[in-house]
């Protein structure tokens, strides 16, 4: 074997979770945060003019603190993901969270200090050669500062948050751990499934009857505890709304949009495009239902695999997967290929299939050493190769920004999924092209459809639900019956009333509604996916795309999303045209799927 399935964490901090090096780093960071707080108290814009050397020192220190927290954070997360039973991880996580809160407080203080700087001095500051590269970020911080309350109140809110919004969020995890789904195993023997196992089978089990039988058992399991989940959701949202109100707004989408540097107008355009273009996806679902021997697909069939005769998929060894990604990345961008190779060679990836690992996959960057780490479980399926390509896309995004100041690397969630989806699309398409039989091709296109189905229909439903829920929550506590009704209506609207079954308890079963930061953990995914598709469509048209793609990625934390698209793609995101170019690519996949399956359903 050429490449190792296990990552190297020692180059980040040596000696595992109890690393002395890590402890020193955390202690130094704590001291640095306190020192920065003191410096801030003493800083005076007038006497620092006209060169603002003192301020440069302050902002440089803040960025160094953020990087130190990032470096420790990726290490602690990595150790915990690779060994979920390691008891020493949780205390380190708590320590890091505490440091994060302290750093946020200092950063809040700095934002408010900027508000005190008169406009003319502020303009003079931004013109300094060393501050110019972060001018956009400083302006953003100053705007944020205008909404902050006095230091004492802000510190009180963030302390209360630990037992408020953040606490309700982690309480959700404790509740989910108690959910069990009494069902039967594949041989029909009685069994008790955990929420995670049931979820995997509900969406991924190859047997349509098994999935159809599981759905009512799944819904019942959440019904049994619906009051507990409703309390949790109501209080988490209530805390958030009170926090917004204290900062002067009743518009619960204002903050999520601001976090994503996105205008409400753009978001509305996206939803219009999605709504006007979902019929072909509903047709696709009807065809899929027909292939499963049904008239209409149920909730449990949307993401289901299709097991057609002769659809045995290629099994990749890890080395083959690496070679496949490097090769196809290279067709778009030699620099992407080089970064992927570096990740494999330098052991940035933990991919081994073994017990005791966390589920899912992620990429995080190590800002102090300009490296990344990728976590996933590789079983050899084409889907795993796509996942790996997705995470390597994230790593590429980080790598092209590594020489920029930390603030300039702080891109938002909506653009965070751009490079990853881009990487994933390249490899998913290459997989379809490499298929040897029609059946194999059908299976792969079906797997590729998971993304558009999620973005256009499922996440659309979640956004509709969450919007209606927050509207109601502003007036009252929302009962479980009302939550079920809101969710059912949202799903029916998003899926065009086309499904035979729905999942009204998705408001309880979906973790994303319970994430404390950021709020509205849904629309940025849709944005990222469609934005990436639009770029992918452009990349296919233009021959030499690498340089302009990298230039775009480097600007992802340097301007509003609308300005980013205008500057690097020459498009207006508030108009449908750019989004429709991406939709066209999905339509091509569906057309191909329809053509290949035509003879199978007649
Ligand atoms: Zn991602």
Automatic annotation (TrEMBL):
Domain Oligopeptidase F N-terminal positions: 114-179
UniProt GO molecular function: metal ion binding; metallocarboxypeptidase activity; metalloendopeptidase activity
Tree of life domain: Bacteria
A Gene Ontology biological process term: proteolysis
Pfam family of the protein (one): Peptidase_M3
Cofactor(s) annotated in UniProt: Zn(2+)
UniProt keyword tRNA-binding, yes or no: no
Cofactor: binding comment: Binds 1 zinc ion.
Stretches assigned to the Peptidase M3A/M3B catalytic domain: 340-582
UniProt keyword list: Hydrolase, Metal-binding, Metalloprotease, Protease, Zinc
Family designation: Belongs to the peptidase M3 family.
Record-given protein name: Oligoendopeptidase F
UniProt source species: Levilactobacillus parabrevis ATCC 53295
Taxonomic lineage: Bacteria, Bacillati, Bacillota, Bacilli, Lactobacillales
